[in-house]
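Workshop exercise sheet. Pairs work together: one partner reads the sequence aloud, the other fills in the structure field after running the prediction. Swap roles for the next sheet.
Pair: D.N. / O.F.
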Amino acid sequence: MRIRSIVISGVAASAAIALGTTSAYASVTVDANGKGFIGKGEVQNALGMNNSALQKAVDAKSLVFTAKQSTSQTLSKGVTQAGSQSGSQAGTQEGTQAGTRAATQTMSQDLVCTFTNGNGTKTFHRDGERDGSRDGSRTGSRTGTRDGSRDGSRDGSRTGTRAGSIAGSLNYDLDVDARKSNQYTGFILNGWKGQSTYTEGVTTWNAPVFGEYTFGDYSFGAWSFSGDYSFGEYEFGAFKATGDVKWGEWDAAPGENPDDCLRSSNADKITAISNVVTPGAVTDGAVTDGVITDGAITPGAVTDGAVTDGAVTDGAVTSGAVTPNGPVQVFVNGKAL
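Structure field:
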């Protein structure tokens, strides 16, 4: 028979201890339900009590049996990482350049007049030249680049574990059925009192695992053109004289003077007069390049550069079940058994 039943109060928590005790003594056994047996000698050794002292402790209801076990808890959370990417864009710019080409033009003058005074018809000819120019333009292009960057983000997740421990108190009775010489042999554990207490420990996170970045549009700076324009051929307009004609000598018969046809005093003696100046061939000279007028820029392909990882923003934590792991320790009044 049993001489008394003693209930030891515990601390409430949400996790239950799964017991498979470890002890330096073979007579300490506890199962997952908190039931088992602890020999009297183990309690005496742990507390340093003789029979009399242990009996007094039993009578005073001062013995408290507890158990403690380490735990682990899986964790996960979403994360978002900001990032920026450099980039370079090629571009082509159109341009127009003005130009002036020097030129000379041959000239000829034919003068014919018929007199009424019996002097007949007189014919005169002379050649000349005049300076001028032709205006023109040519189109071309040049290539350049501009640098820029764009912002983005990528989603990911990371896992971790949280260490901890759960502890609780045990109900017990004295084992007097197997007594010898009116001595009880140990303590019968009858299971847990209430729920165990969970104590959170250190949390360790693994490195995050990310997906691909999602970027916005590039923001570019100014274009940079390091090379010269590549131009085609000039297209020139018509010749424009820039000076007077430089005439040569008249081609006339001996004793004849073209002024006889042109002198106003002979006007009543001339029945017909023809004075024709004929422009001739133009001979082109050197070209003087003028001002270049920049035109529109046509953006080309973008070359993506390096990605710079930015700050990581943690999301909400999802906690898994608290899992007991490792050996269970059993205590009496805080002393390990």
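Discussion prompt: Residues 51-59 form the longest helix (9 residues). What would you look at next?
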